[in-house]
Amino acid sequence: MSVESAGPGLGPLCPEHGQALSWFCCSERRPVCAACAGLGGRCRGHRIRRAEERAEELRNKIVDQCERLQFHSASIAKYVAEVLPGKNQRAASTASAARELVIQRLAVVRSLCESEEQRLLEQVHGEEERAHQSILTQQVHWTEALQKLDTIRTSLVGMLTHLDDLQLIQKEQEIFERHGGRAYRREDRQPLPATVR
C-alpha cells in the first residue's frame, strides 16, 4: 500500500483521505485510516481493529518466538555441554577395553599371529576414530545451530526495538517467513538430541 508521510513524528497518511493510518483491516491485512474503515469507506463491512492492537499482537508473537528459540538454544547447549562429553568418554573407555582384550587374547598366540594382531588393533583404532569424529561433527553442528538461533533471536529483538506499529504490521509476512523457527538449512539438519525433543 502506498502511503504519504505526515511529517516528522506524525507517521504516514492514507493517500486517499490524508488521515492517519490508525486502524488495521483484517480482511485486506493492511493499515487503513478512519475514513477507509467507516461506513462509506472501501473497508466497510470488513473486520477492523486498531493498528496499535494489531501491532501489540505481533509483538507478543515475536516475544513467544524468541522464548521458544531461547528454550531450543538452552536445550542444545545442555546437550553439547553435558551429553557429548559423556559420549566421548564412553567411546574412549569402550575402545580402551576392546584394545586391552585384543592384546590379552593375542598374547597367547603372538608368535603365530603377528599380522592378525596388527589388523585387529587397527580395526579397533579405526572404530575409535570414527566414533570420535562423529561426536566432533555433532558438536560443530549444534554449535552452528546455536549461533544461528542467537542471530535470529537478536534480529527479532532488533525489530521489536526499532520498528513502529505500522512498520511492524507491514513487515509481518517478511518477519515470520524469515524467522519462523528456521535455525538452520534443511539440508544441514540432523535429528535433535533426546534432551532437545
UniProtKB/TrEMBL annotation:
Gene Ontology molecular functions = zinc ion binding
Keyword Protein biosynthesis attributed: no
Q: Which residues cross the membrane?
A: none
Record's keyword terms, sorted: Metal-binding, Zinc, Zinc-finger
Q: Does the keyword Metal-binding apply?
A: yes
Q: Which ranges carry the B box-type domain?
A: 13-47
Superkingdom assignment: Eukaryota
UniProt cross-references to Pfam families, sorted A to Z = zf-B_box
**Gene3D superfamilies for the chain:** Classic Zinc Finger (3.30.160.60)
Instruction: Tell me what this protein is called.
Output: B box and SPRY domain-containing protein isoform X2
